[in-house]
Design a protein that fits this description.
The chain has about 300 residues and is α/β, with parallel strands linked by helices. The protein is built from seven helices and 13 strands.
Length: about 300
């Protein structure tokens, strides 16, 4: 396999965080979170990087992140805008202000991804072992003559993905005895309670308890290019079903994978890893993330500076 590709979804507005958190320097030398993912991915063997960003971010993003990465790997930029990849028959409502979510985001990369790839969020820390596991899976993967495609997902324990500062959205997963995904449901208001339980409060103020060790998707998927054909169909069906009341509804990548899996078109292998996820959902999360990143530099997981290496 000549190219091993990472696709980084960095077009989100970061509305809860209050700014463009994808390019917020959190490391001891002003590293952004995706610097760590890129470093870990290149160390694992990936050699092509696709950034999905907003057009308005391009100049600052390229200067702060992309130009450095281009010295080490092949780099491409694609843009997710409100009108990106929209079929001619659909008219975007004038009242809608944001693009259509992570499935829409990945679809924007269709023209530049022609090889097995992993896709993940820019504003999450996944850890070295997760990229090593994903690279090994994709490097040994051949879906060319399979009716049922093999995909993968890095799974994390729910308790290791919760913010202490508010609710989070997570893909709650179920697996079979072969550690294959059987269900992934995007769950929108997950919260940690004072008694240590983690609950979904979307429809019940007291919360429906979710086991702390329940595997969750953090949008870290290993896929192959034929998935884009289904993704386009899935996105078009989403648009057909939108109503006037759905101005903020999003088309999400976990839902697309779940739909493809339930159609009998793929198996999703859940990759376990030793790495611990963390990220910044709210401004209040920032100090803790800064401290954890400094610790990873101090203990030798990363060199003194990712900016200069």
């Amino acid at each position: 396999m000549d190219k091993t590709t990472i696709v980084i979804m960095a077009a989100g507005l970061g509305s809860r965080y209050g700014g463009e958190k994808q390019v917020d320097g959190l490391g001891p030398n002003n590293e952004v979170l995706m610097d760590y993912s890129i470093y870990d991915a290149l160390a694992a063997g990936f050699n092509k990087v696709v950034f999905i960003i907003k057009k308005s971010m391009y100049e600052s993003f390229k200067r702060q992140v992309g130009d450095r990465v281009a010295k080490k790997a092949e780099v491409h930029y694609v843009f997710q805008e409100l009108d990106s990849m929209i079929p001619e028959w659909y008219e975007v409502p004038a009242e809608r202000s944001k693009p259509f979510g992570t499935a829409h985001c990945l679809l924007c990369a269709r023209d530049v991804v022609n090889e097995p790839f992993c896709v993940f969020n820019a504003d999450d820390y996944y850890g070295p072992h997760s990229f090593q596991s994903m690279y090994e899976f994709l490097h040994n993967l051949d879906n060319s003559n399979k009716d049922i495609k093999d995909y993968s997902m890095v799974g994390y324990k729910l308790e290791n993905t919760i913010s202490d500062n508010g609710t989070v959205t997570r893909g709650i997963c179920k697996t079979n005895d072969h550690n294959e995904l059987t269900q992934c449901i995007e769950t929108y208001k997950i919260m940690k309670f004072d008694d240590g339980t983690i609950r979904d409060i979307n429809f019940n103020p007291e919360g429906d308890i979710i086991p702390n060790d329940n595997p969750v998707s953090m949008n870290f998927w290993g896929l192959t290019p034929e998935f884009f054909d289904f993704l386009e169909e899935f996105f078009h069906e989403f648009l057909r079903n939108l109503t006037e009341a759905d101005l903020k509804k999003e088309c999400l990548l976990p839902g697309a994978v779940d739909s493809y899996m339930k159609a009998g078109k793929c198996r999703v292998h859940v990759l376990t890893c030793d790495s611990k996820w963390f990220g910044v959902t709210y401004q209040e999360d920032r100090p803790g993330v800064v401290a954890r990143l400094k610790e990873l530099h101090d203990n030798g997981t990363y060199p003194v500076s990712l900016i200069d290496c």
